[in-house]
Amino acid sequence: MRIPAKVFSSIYFGVQRLRSGVSEDQISAAARLLDSSWAQCEAHAIERLRMVHGRNVDWTWLRARAPTSRSELGAAAAKAIETAPSTTRFEVRKTSGSTGTPFRFPKDRQMTAWMDAAMWAGYAWHGVRPGDPHVRFWGMPLAWTRRLNKRLGDALLNRQRVDAFRLRPATVRKWYFQLRARHATYAYGYPSLIRAFIEMCRAQELDGRELGLRVVISTGELLSPIARREIESFFECRVVNEYGCTESGVIGLECERGVMHALPVATWPEIVAYDGTPVRDDEGEVVVTDLYGQVFPLVRYRLRDRGISTSKVCECGRELVHLEISSGRSDSFIQTPSGPVYDAILAYSAPSSVQRFRVWQVSQTELLAHVVPGAGCNESVAAAEAAHAWERALQGQMRVSVVPVSDIPPEPSGKLRYFVPASPEPAGELQS
Question: Which domain holds residue 186?
Answer without folding.
Answer: 5-68+108-292+302-327
